[in-house]
Specification:
By secondary structure, the chain is an alpha+beta fold. Helix content is about 50%, strand content about 15%. It has a two-stranded antiparallel ribbon with strand order 1-2. The radius of gyration is 22 Å and the shape is elongated.
Amino acid sequence: NDIEYELRYKKSESIINEKKVKGESWDLALGAKLFNEMIRNYQFSMLRKRKIFESPEEKSERMRQTCIDRAKLKITDDFLENLKKLVWEMPLYKIAEKYSISNSRITEICKKYEIVKPQIGYWRKNLN
């Protein structure tokens, strides 16, 4: 079963034992698709190594979808009133998921419309 993947080379500085070495080296990137496939094949590998990466195409599509979702969100008086309640009922990431936007967008809206939200650590203390 031969798998074809594009290999990308990138020039970088050589660092050995945390010290910069004269000259340059080349880094070899396997690519997100191959790495993700390798992770799927090694089901029992260490959890710390089980990170899923996006290919440039996947990232581009995700960003495009994020822009579409962000444009769909209409900030009305009803939305702002609801948001004032929601920030005290659930963590920001849950609100972001509900509206299909990013946490930073929720924070940006709260700041712009002066919506008071819980301090960092509030949900960690109150959910446990």
